[in-house]
Amino acid sequence: MKSILLKQIFETERQFCNQAVSQAKHQSPLLEISDFQWFLTACLDPLMVHYDTVDFEEAKAVALSGFQHGLELTGLNWFKQPERKDLILNTWNTLFPNLLLLVSKHPGMIFSQTSNLYSHLLTFGDLYPKNWLTLMVQVSSTSILDSPKMYQSAGFAAAWLSGLVHLRDPALKEVHSLPSDIVMSLFKITEPNKVDDFLTRLNENRWISTYDSHPSRLLTSSYQPQIRVGQNSHLGGDFPEPPTVYASENQLLVKSGSLVWRLYADAFGATMILAHLEDLTNLPDMANHPDILAGFSSLTELEDLRAFSSVACLTDTLALTSEDSFSVIIMSLPYIEPEG
Question: How far apart are CA 221 and CA 219, in angstroms?
Answer without folding.
Answer: 7
